[in-house]
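ok trying again, last paste got cut off:
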Amino acid sequence: MADELADLFQNNRTWAAQHLAQDPAFFTRLSQQQSPEYLWIGCSDSRVPANDIVGLAPGELFVHRNVGNLVYHTDFNCMSVLQYAIEILQVKHIIVTGHYGCGGVRAALQNRELGLIDNWLHNVRDIYDRNRTRLERLDEEARIDRLCELNVVQQVANVCHTTIVQRAWHKGQALSVHGCIYSINDGILRDLGVQVSGADQLAPVYRIEE
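nice, full thing came through this time. structure:
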C-alpha cells in the first residue's frame, strides 16, 4: 500500500518543506489552534479545492463537502459541522458554494437508477420540479448550470432554517450565510447575490422564536 501511495507521501514532504522554508513556525502555530472566520459548504468534486479557490491557508477555512453541496436537516454529519463551526469556532460567514456543470446536479436529471445517490439527490429534483417551466426553456447545459445556481439558493435557505443558525442569531452572534458558484472553466468564484444575516430575512413560517 505504501508503495502505491509513494508519490503522495513525497508530495506531502515537499509541501511541508516549502511551508517551513517560508515560515519556520507555520506548523507550530497551526497545531495550537484553528480560528477560521468562514465555513465552506461545497461539493465533493475533486476539481473544486476550497482553500485554493479563495486563497486561504490551512486553518483559515472550515470545510464541509458532499455530492451536490446539499444541506439536509437530517444529515447529522452536516449538522454537526454546522454546530461546531458556529458554536465552537464562532465563524462569521457560511459560504454555500456550488459549481457549474456539477455531476450531482446532472445525475439528478437523468431518468435512470444510479443507486443510493438517487436518494441523496432527491432535493435537487424537487428544485427542478418547482422551476420546471423556466428551466425547460433553456438548452441542456444552460439548464444544468441554472439548476446549479438554484440549488445553491435553496441550500442557503436550508442552512438558515436550522435551529443552529437561528439560535446564533437570537444570541446576537454576527453570522451571515452566502451563496456562491464556481466555474471550473475559468476558475472564477461568483457571488449569487444571496446573503442572509438574520431571521427577519426569512419567511415567517421558517422563523423559530426564542
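cool. Residues 33 and 59 are 8 Å apart (CA to CA). Strands lie at 38-43, 61-66, 93-99, 176-182, 189-196.
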